[in-house]
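Long-time lurker. I teach an intro course on protein structure, and each term I like to show students one example going from raw sequence to a predicted 3D structure in C-alpha cell notation. This year I'd like something fresh instead of my usual example. Would anyone be willing to generate the C-alpha cells for the chain below so I can use it in lecture? Attribution to the forum is fine with me.
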Amino acid sequence: MSTVNDKAIFAKRFRGFLPVVVDVETGGFDPQTDALLEIAAVLLTMDERGYIHRHKTLAHHVLPFPGANLDAEALAFNGIDPYHPFRNAASEQDALKSIFSAVSKWVKENNCTRAILVGHNAFFDLGFLNAAVKRNNIKRNPFHPFSSFDTATLAGVAFGQTVLARAVQAAGIEWDSSEAHSAIYDAERTADLFCKIVNYWDELKEKD
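-- Reply from a regular --
Happy to contribute to a lecture. Here you go:
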C-alpha cells in the first residue's frame, strides 16, 4: 500500500501528471463518425521503491452513438457484435462519466493535477476519447486534451519493436493472441509495458 509520501513522489515523477493507460475498441478509424465500442482505463500505483505497477482496471462496453458508422472490417478484426444482448453496454456518456469519476478521484488521491493518457499509438485512443467527450458535452474531463505517452514510441526506443504484441514479448511479458483486441486485455498489457519501461529507466538512473 502506498503511503502519502509515496504518492507525493508519484506526483513529482511525471511533473504533476498521473499516467492512466487507456485502450479503445471502435467501429472504424475516424473518431468523428465511427462508433466507440469498448473503453478500458488502467490506474497505476507506486510502491515503496518508487516503481510503478498496475493498480485497478476500469472498463465498459459502449453502445454506438446514434448515427455512428460501423465498419464491417473493423468489427471482423475486433470480434465485437455491438448489439449483442449480453454485452451489457452503457451509453458513451455513462461509460465516460463512470471512468472519469474514478480517474479524477485517483488523480486527487495521488496529489496530481491532471491525468495524462498512456496508449499504444496514443493519438488513436485520445482522438476517440476527445471526440466522445465533445459529442456528449462532458465538462469534467480529467485527461489532458492533447498530451500523451505513446508506448509504441517508447517500446521502439527501448526494445526496437512498435507493434504491441511484439513489444510486450520483447519486454518479457506474456502475450495471449486469443485475448488480444479487447480493450481490457490490450490496456493491461500496454500498462505492463509502460511500467516495465519506466521502471527500467529508473533502475538505470539509480546505477549512474
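Some talking points for your students: The beta strands are 17-26, 36-46, 52-61, 114-119, 143-150. Helices lie at 4-13, 72-78, 92-109, 122-135, 151-159, 164-170, 183-207.
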